[in-house]
Amino acid sequence: MKTLPVLPRKPASLHLPLLLALGLTVTACGNEDACAVGSELHRTELFFGLDRENAEPVSEAEWQDFVDTSVTPRFKDGLTMFDADGQYQMDNGELIHENSKVIVLLHDGAPERSTDIDTIREEYKRRFDQESVLRVDTLSCVAF
Predict the structure, then answer these.
(1) Domain count, the chain
(2) Backbone region of residue 129 per phi and psi (left: phi > 0; alpha: psi in -120 to 50; beta: other values)
(3) pLDDT per position in the chain (144 positions), as tens?
(4) 77 lies in which domain range?
(5) pTM to 2 decimal places
(6) Distance CA 86, CA 24 (A)
(7) Which of 17, 36, 99, 137 has the lowest CB atom count within 10 Å?
């Protein structure tokens, strides 16, 4: 059994515990399982918080410019993105809510793809003064 890393309690944009509520349309399959339908692809979900410390939240125009200039050139075959509502509780009991964006990428899992994904994450953090971008990787059975 794998253990998951413990995420630090930090301001907004970090903890988006809505993975179970997404209603995902791709069926996960393990390494040892053959896909009954379609073929196995890597699925990466990226969670981008929109709040910024001491600044206005990331605007729709800023977000779209980021996607157009940083994400799409690296994943020209396409991607899916949607709005999300994240929340977590601080150690002091304060409940934090944050508007967020989620991008879903399907890819071959090559090291170059992982590098591209981490570059996207680092660019978002730098451009919008963020502490982190959550990355979730799984294998999925995909049929088009």
Answers:
(1) 1
(2) left
(3) 444 444 444 444 333 333 323 333 344 445 456 899 999 999 999 999 999 989 999 999 999 999 999 999 999 999 999 999 999 898 999 999 999 999 999 999 999 999 999 999 999 999 999 999 999 999 999 999
(4) 30-142
(5) 0.76
(6) 17
(7) 36
